[in-house]
Design brief:
Layout (H helix, E strand, L loop, with lengths): L79 H6 L2 E2 L7 E7 L5 E9 L2 E3 L11 H14 L1 H13 L7 H14 L2 H12 L8 H14 L2 H13 L6 H14 L2 H13 L5 H13 L3 H13 L6 H13 L3 H13 L6 H13 L3 H9 L10 H13 L3 H13 L6 H14 L2 H13 L4 H14 L6 H4 L2 H9 L1 H13 L3 H10 L5 H18 L2 H9 L8 H13 L3 H13 L6 H14 L2 H13 L7 H13 L3 H14 L5 H10 L6 H13 L6 H13 L3 H13 L5 H13 L3 H13 L6 H13 L3 H13 L6 H14 L2 H13 L6 H13 L3 H13 L6 H13 L3 H13 L3
């Protein structure tokens, strides 16, 4: 594939570039100094006066960079004014005047004097009147164009006012050149319209080339394309220079689309611009569009373009970039057969290509054969060999070429240094790495950049623990005095659990900046937390020299101590903060609240929230609001929940799905059913999806409010979204049971089984309770039998239902059997069991047994509650034990019940 371009770009190696404190000497291919300038169009020449049929003098400039190999020759700039107008300088007649001689049509020369007064032009002195010929005016305009844009445009306006611009293309070109320098593109476009209109000028490529040249110099890609399109719209035929400038402009910015358009226009006009072909191929090569690049090579053959040295080099470069090294070698042979002498740049391209392809045997062979073709390896040759052996992970060979490079007086580039340090991190000892660090410093690399490269190399090699052995002497001293380097090193040590080394650096540092130091410690501690190295964070915190309270550090440590379960230490930090003069912010309060929640101290969490409310400037975020809702729910603080809910509505916080779920779940007992229903409908209308818990909560809310139509709709919606679980059915079955709607309860049980859910213990308990309270004892017994058949173990609630139902019937023997079974199951009676038994004994007239149960409760560590004493007093009254009933009533009052 061939790549022809104004500047050839060859990828040497993929390297991390260092930052240099001074401009380093990047590799320029020295051998190109021997290459003669190639006769192409030179952009620094004045394009508008070059005939389309003549060859354009152009120098090749090539740069050697990451993906480029380039040619560079001397920069020729022509004095276009003398060249095309024949104007000669004469001796000055006055310090404030300039004299030029212009050749007039009759062959005589006339002296023209332009007087400058305080930077202004005196148009009336020295014959500056409207009778001046157009030739004289143009000569003056050219002279002024060199001295200042403002003077040039003022004189141009004078020429317009005095009728000197009719058909005067040269004057317009000078004015356009000034507008191009100024970047006044609208005025330039207006001037072109004026030329083809009032001034009756023939607008050709020279006019547009003037502006395109300005765009090229200033790097305006879109504007360059605009002028090309205007040329096409106005029927102006471009010339070689037009496409040479445009393609070079597009190559600077690797602009594929615009380059393709310009290239197609060039071929449609039948114009052959060697640099344009080069630029197009190089752009395609740079962006890895190799197939398209080869299409352009076919165009070169189809259009019969005569290749110059640059073209040949671009071809070699393009094939080398995509790994087609055999084609590249064939191009090299063809180049030499075409009469071009061997060129070190071409061989360097091949070496680079073989290095990228990891074929170092071929690269080595080319290197050894250089002398046989009359060439000596240059700086880039050695650099390419170093990179190739680096890719091959061969430290021995890379080191040999590296030493040869330095021995010949050449300097390694940043890519070489990067390659060497990475190889040494894997295969060499610390002394070799230290020598490479010295080379980096000699080249002017910044310490922080060198340190970053060193750490990256040893991190990849898994030998970061060797870094402390390398960082010695002046380099380590720099780390201790430079805040940035110190931070980089400490963070790397912490990341790899070298905590002792990190602490040592922090203790030995020479810089003193309390704020920066606190921020660094905070960053280090946060890094340990994110990496899960919590004990390391604690160790670093305990080694801090300045224990002055710092809100961010202490809050982070509170969170870390909470995660470790060391709540007493976390609480001590909070108390230290509270006693200091530091005001806690919203994040600090959030961390402390969560610490108390994790420790199970909900009362303390509520106390912190009260303290926060006292600070009027604290506005909770959505996360803290959710934490507050959960805390108040767990504490059963319904009033607080209602107050917080309306506070959230007024806060203007943006609600998300989690917020809706949290509010509905936590406030289900604190808010009216209508408000909960409104929230649920709003959540659905906004496109948020309730979770299973929210669906179940709404089922419970609607069920307890006997809004069964809405409850069934919620169940249907949950089932549609696949969020129904056994609890969903348990909830609605329990609601039907509480409303004594046994028919719908049974149908829902069947629906539950049909949808793949087995009948749960909760459902059995609901059935037992409903049948028992309705006196359907036969159905009650059938449910018990089905429970045994399905091996469904009873819980406290099951036994308590049985005791209650049998007790209501006065079946004290069955009650005794249930009590025995309860004890044998290992569960034993709970508070509800005892309360139910006392009630049953009262109905059965067994008052003394009921009193004994109270004593048994205390012995078993169960404290009687208000229901216990109420049931006992009712039992005594029912059995005419009024005196005893009064005694127990007095006891209740003394107990505060």
């Amino acid at each position: 594939m061939a790549s022809i371009k104004f500047s050839v770009s060859v990828d040497t190696y993929d390297s991390n570039k260092f930052h240099f404190s001074a401009n380093p000497s990047f590799p320029i291919i020295n051998s190109f100094a021997r290459v003669k300038p190639i006769n192409l169009s030179r952009l620094d020449a004045e394009y508008w006066d070059i005939p389309d049929s003549n060859p354009v003098a152009e120098n090749i400039k090539t740069s050697w960079g990451k993906d480029s190999v380039g040619l560079e020759s001397s920069n020729y700039r022509n004095d276009i004014w003398r060249r095309f107008q024949g104007v000669k300088r004469v001796n000055r007649k006055d310090p404030n005047s300039k004299s030029r001689s212009a050749r007039i049509d009759n062959g005589h020369e006339e002296k023209i004097y332009v007087k400058h007064v305080d930077g202004e032009l005196d148009m009336n002195e020295y014959g500056m009147v409207s009778q001046l010929s157009v030739e004289r005016c143009n000569a003056i305009l050219k002279d002024l164009e060199r001295s200042g844009d403002g003077k040039t445009m003022r004189f141009f306006e004078w020429m317009r006012e005095n009728g000197k611009l009719k058909g005067n293309v040269g004057a317009y070109n000078l004015a356009l050149r000034v507008l191009g320098r100024r970047g006044d593109w609208d005025a330039a476009e207006t001037m072109i319209q004026e030329m083809s209109g009032d001034s009756n000028c023939q607008v050709d490529f020279r006019v547009y080339n003037t502006l395109i040249y300005a765009c090229y110099k200033q790097g305006h890609v879109e504007l360059g394309s605009k002028w090309l399109r205007l040329m096409s719209e106005n029927g102006v035929r471009p010339n070689v220079a037009t496409f040479g400038m445009l393609m070079s402009l597009y190559q600077k910015g690797w602009n594929v689309a615009e380059a393709e358009f310009a290239f197609s226009q060039m071929r449609s006009f039948g114009i052959t611009c060697q640099s344009a072909y080069s630029a197009m191929i190089t752009i395609y090569t740079r962006v890895s569009l190799y197939d398209k690049a080869e299409e352009v090579i076919d165009f070169i053959q189809e259009d019969k373009v005569t290749l110059n040295l640059e073209n040949w080099l671009v071809l070699i470069n393009a094939y080398s970039q995509q790994g087609k090294l055999q084609e590249a070698e064939r191009v090299l042979i063809s180049m030499q057969n075409s009469g071009f002498s061997p060129n070190i740049v071409a061989y360097n391209m091949l070496i680079t290509g073989y290095g990228k392809a990891s074929n170092m045997d071929a690269a080595q062979s080319i290197f050894r054969n250089l002398q046989s073709v009359g060439l000596e390896p240059d700086e880039s040759t050695f650099r390419s060999m170093i990179e190739g052996w680096g890719r091959a992970e061969n430290y021995k060979e890379a080191e040999w070429y590296y030493n040869e490079l330095k021995g010949l007086g050449f300097k390694p580039n940043s890519s070489n240094l990067y390659t060497m340090i990475h190889l040494q991190a894997k295969y060499a000892d610390e002394e070799d790495a230290a020598r490479t660090l010295d080379d980096m410093k000699k080249m002017g690399c910044q310490y922080s950049s060198v340190l970053g490269t060193l750490l990256q190399a040893y991190e990849r090699a898994g030998r970061i623990d060797r870094v402390p052995l390398i960082l010695k002497g002046s380099f380590y001293e720099h780390v201790l005095v430079n805040q940035t380097s110190c931070s980089i090193l400490v963070m790397a040590y912490v990341k790899h659990c070298l905590v002792d080394d990190a602490i040592k650096v922090l203790q030995e540092k020479h810089w003193k900046d309390v704020i920066f130091e606190d921020n660094l410690y905070h960053l280090v501690i946060c890094s340990c937390k994110e990496l899960g190295h919590l004990e390391n964070a604690v160790k670093i915190y305990n080694q801090m020299p300045n224990k002055k309270p710092n809100l961010h550090i202490m809050c982070t440590m509170i969170d870390i101590y909470s995660t470790l379960g060391r709540f007493s230490e976390a609480e001590n930090l909070y108390l230290d903060l509270k006693s200091s003069e530091i005001s806690l912010d919203m994040i600090a309060f959030s961390i402390v609240v969560r610490m108390y929640v994790k420790s199970g101290s909900l009362k303390d969490a509520c106390s912190v929230l009260e303290t926060m409310d006292e600070q009027k400037n604290i506005v909770p975020d959505i996360y803290l609001f959710r934490d507050m809702l959960r805390i108040y729910q767990q504490c059963g603080m319904l009033d607080k929940l209602r107050e917080l809910y309306y506070r959230i509505l007024k806060s203007g916080v943006t609600w998300d799905a989690e917020m809706y779920n949290c509010v509905i779940n936590c406030c289900s007992r604190a808010l009216p059913v209508d408000e909960l229903s409104r929230l649920f409908d709003e959540m659905l209308s906004r496109g948020f999806s309730p979770n299973t818990i929210t669906f179940n909560v709404m089922l419970d809310v609607y069920g307890k409010s006997r809004l069964f139509t809405k409850a069934r709709k919620v169940l249907w919606l949950a089932r549609k979204r696949g969020l129904v679980d056994a609890i969903s059915y348990n909830t609605i079955i329990a609601a039907y049971g509480q409303s004594k709607d046994i028919k719908k309860m049974l149908s829902t049980v069947q629906e539950m089984q049909f949808n793949g859910f087995s009948v749960s213990l909760e459902v059995y308990n609901c059935l037992l309770d409903s049948y028992g309270k309705e006196g359907q004892l036969e159905s009650f017994r059938n449910v018990l039998r089905r429970m045994k058949e399905s091996s469904c173990a009873s819980n406290h609630y099951t036994y308590n239902i049985m005791i209650n139902i049998y007790g209501e019937q006065g079946w004290i023997e069955e009650v005794a059997n249930v009590l025995t079974e309860l004890k044998e199951s290992g569960l034993g009676p709970d508070l509800c069991s005892y309360n139910t038994l006392i009630k049953a004994y009262g109905i059965a007239g067994m008052v003394e047994d009921a009193v004994v149960l109270v004593k048994e409760m205390r012995e078993n560590g169960i404290q009687p509650d208000r229901i216990t004493y109420t049931n006992l007093i009712n039992a005594l009254r029912k059995n005419d034990e009024f005196l005893e009933a009064v005694k127990w009533s007095l006891w209740m009052k003394q107990m505060g019940l």
